[in-house]
Amino acid sequence: MIVKKRTIPIKILKNNALLRRLPNNSSKIPEIMSDLAKRMAGYRGEQALDFHLSKLPEKDYHIFHGLRLTNGIYFFQIDTLILTTRYALILEIKNYAGVLYFDPVCNQLIQTNPAGEEKGYANPIEQANQQLQELKKWVNKRNIPLPIEFLVVISKPSTIIKTTPNYTRILQRVKHVQYLNSEIEKINQSYKELIDTKEIKRISHQLNKEHQPETFDVLNYYKIPFNEVKTGVICPSCHSLSMKRQYATWYCQTCKIANRDAHYQAVIDLFLLNNDQPVSNHEIRQFLGLASRTTSLKILLSLNLPHTGTGKGRRYLPPPRYQDIPHIDIQLY
Ligand SMILES: [Zn+2]
Questions:
Q1: Distance from residue 22's CA to the centre of ligand 1 (Å)
Q2: Strand ranges (E), the chain
Q3: What's the total number of domains in the chain?
Q4: What is the pLDDT of residues 140-159, one digit of tens each?
């Protein structure tokens, strides 16, 4: 059963919102596009697991995607955690293509990609092991008697995995996605039942409660001042920034389509670019390019956003879990 579903990472949503709203000649575009491409590849790699995980018997496996917990000092993030009555299993997912060489001397992963270029990465076995150590402390603190295992899952079946002969034992922790379920079967054999399903529910509740959503101040990260961002409502059809509002409807000056909800994306973009901070009616009115305060207030009320303060001091907050809302236009690169 999926206890915590996978959502589009906030960094992808924010990179995407920024690309939508940067002037075409911005010097930052190549860097943002390259970051977004890497993040998308990672996200697709994680999605590649879903088919395999969906074959596990629902009631025996409690699955958490993208859990982010704190040890009080820093955060640790687990791509996928599988909780059973016998053990907990951490999956560290890598989508690298080509040939992967696990270098035991430098404790590094060297990828030769399909274009023949070499790239070095931190050893994912080490990464997963660190998550294991942190999760171990987390469960010990809460008197949960579950052993923890980890696997590094390579999401592309065609990726070739190599190492030196005396290091092959370590590679037992690295599996191609198509062997994930049989590996889980093997782990099942190694442990006996330690807790009951009631206890699993209690732990699941605790994990969900302690999950800390990732934050990302995208403008600050790329050192882009807010006034460089293009404001206005984007046409959902031709993507130009020429929507004008008349009688509760947006009309595109370029392709002439009419749309009643085109402002929604713009409001979400404002939150995404403004580091999820509360905004005033005035700020939203300026961002949407509306002349009338009453119109922007009407729009704000129709969106039913959470808010704080009253009168002129009222500030509107992003909708809860707004990254999950399906009708945001996600233009995946
Ligand atoms: Zn248009």
A1: 18
A2: 2-4, 62-70, 75-83, 88-94, 99-103, 108-112, 118-122, 148-154, 160-163, 174-176, 243-246, 249-252, 258-259, 307-308, 315-316
A3: 2
A4: 999 999 999 999 999 999 99
pLDDT digits (tens, 9 = 90+) for 281-331: 999 999 999 999 999 999 988 888 999 999 889 999 998 777 655 544 555
Rounded CA gap, 261 and 177, in Å? 41
Q: CA 140, 142, 144 angle in degrees (round to 5)?
A: 65
Q: What is the CATH number of the domain that holds 306?
A: 1.10.10
Ligand 1 centroid distance, CA of 241 (Å): 8
CA–CA separation, 229 and 273 (whole Å): 9
Same domain, 237 and 201: no
User: Ligand 1 centre from 45 Cα, in Å?
Assistant: 34
Please give the residue range of the domain that contains residue 72: 2-210
SS3 content of the chain, % helix, strand, coil (to 5): 40, 20, 40
CA-CA-CA-CA torsion sign (309, 310, 313, 317): positive
Residue type, 185: E
- Residues near ion ligand 1 (Cβ under 5 Å): 235, 237-238, 252, 254-255
Rounded Cα–Cα distance for residues 321 and 319 (Å): 6
Q: What is the whole-number distance in angstroms between the Cα of residue 250 and the centre of ligand 1?
A: 10
